[in-house]
From TrEMBL:
Protein name stated in the entry: Glycosyltransferase family 4 protein
Listed PANTHER family: SULFOQUINOVOSYL TRANSFERASE SQD2 (PTHR45947:SF3)
UniProt keyword annotations, A-Z: Transferase
Keyword S-adenosyl-L-methionine (UniProt): no
Top-rank lineage group of the source organism: Bacteria
Pfam families, alphabetized: Glyco_trans_1_4
Originating species: Rhizobium daejeonense
GO molecular function: glycosyltransferase activity
Keyword set includes Transferase: yes
Length: 363
């Protein structure tokens, strides 16, 4: 089918790397691999950081996009479906609903989320728009059980389907796993909020096993780089390797030489970095928090510990450093898990299964 793809939070072409941008790109590829003709409908970003924020000219920009696409579709024919990735209270879809009604198209969402606590200011209007479109959508794809439950409670009649978070594992699986003993790896941006909270928890946990033989490679950059470096200044020189922001190929190279991936995961929707690490053969140590259990299976591909418990986190890391046979068992299972259950080809087939029936529900 012909699919118009839109990501109001962050376009797949956005210059700043993030999990949202990566998943948008992965969805585009999965849809194309399923035999669909996919077009990036618009790059308009509708993100509102606060409920009081009024983005100058946003409504006019959205109207211009609707008119531009209307003219294009009248000339060349409309798509078969509008596919919106990650609409939520901070990033509403101000383009697709009107066009779907005008052209009689089915509407589909992926990773839409609803929170009763966010009915504030302009966010309240965005939430009402979201509830309406989730109810009318031919299908709403939920990456986590938390999102599925939230949508089901907000819109009981919504058509919901689960699809697991996924990646293209080929760049990571293609490299042989040649771990250096005691080499820990973290890949995460350095931003305020949950990322900084996770870095703080990681530094505290690692201080509890400072007497063990390990080195930590940290991949990532961002506005909190100085603060993150300060957190780890307690460790002896050479224990922390600061690699900065790297390309995907460079990240794959770093992971291939690692033995354990360590990242608490505070506030993670799910965390594609966990899947990349597992595809490279690294078992994960993380907290059993937010969406992390959606991508790491405790006891099978890694170890999940109680939230906000640095001692439990430290003990999990120490156990894998001390038991190479167990680490290797988790490593092999992690690679199989991503390759056989969370890979792009697997999810391309799953997308086809859930999107074709959605064509029966045009607006």
């Amino acid at each position: 089918m012909r699919i118009a793809f839109y990501a109001p939070l962050k376009s797949p072409d956005h210059p700043v790397p993030s999990g949202d941008r990566l998943m948008a790109r992965q969805l585009l590829r999965a849809l194309e691999e399923g035999g669909n003709e996919v077009t990036l409908a618009s790059q308009l970003r509708t993100f509102h950081a606060t409920p009081e924020t009024m983005i100058p000219g946003l409504e006019n920009a959205a109207q211009e996009e609707r008119e531009r696409l209307s003219r294009l579709w009248e000339q060349n024919g409309p798509p078969d479906m509008w596919f919106c990735y990650h609409p939520y209270y901070k990033a509403p879809d101000l383009i697709g609903p009107d066009l779907c009604r005008r052209f009689g198209l089915p509407y589909a969402t992926a990773e839409a989320s609803y929170s009763h606590r966010r009915n504030l200011g302009c966010w309240a209007r965005h939430q009402e728009m979201l509830r309406e479109m989730v109810g009318l959508a031919g299908v709403n794809l939920c990456f986590t059980e938390r999102d599925r439950v939230g949508l089901a409670e907000a819109v009981p009649d919504a058509r919901l389907a689960r699809i697991a978070p996924f990646i293209d594992p080929s760049p990571f699986i293609a490299r042989p796993s040649i771990p250096r003993a005691g080499r820990l790896v973290t890949v995460a941006m350095m931003r305020p909020g949950d990322k900084m909270s996770s870095y703080t928890a990681l530094a505290e946990a690692m201080s509890l096993v400072a007497d063990r033989d390990w080195r930590l490679s940290i991949v990532g950059g961002g506005p909190e780089r100085v603060s993150v470096e300060a957190l780890f200044s307690r460790f002896a020189p050479g224990r922390i390797e600061w690699l900065g922001e790297l390309s995907s190929a460079e990240v794959a190279e770093v992971l291939s030489a690692g033995s354990v991936f360590v990242w608490p995961g505070h506030g993670e929707a799910y965390g594609l970095a966990y899947l990349e690490a597992q595809a490279a053969g690294l078992p994960v140590v993380a907290e059993h928090v937010a969406g992390v259990p959606e991508v790491v299976e405790h006891g099978r591909t890694g170890l999940l510990v109680s939230p906000r418990d640095p001692r439990a986190f430290a003990d999990a890391v120490a156990s894998l450093l001390a038991d190479e046979s167990r680490r290797l068992l988790l490593s092999n299972a992690a690679r199989r898990f991503v390759s056989e259950e969370r890979s792009l080809p697997v999810m391309a087939r799953r997308l086809s299964e859930v999107l074709v029936p959605a064509l029966e529900y045009p607006l």
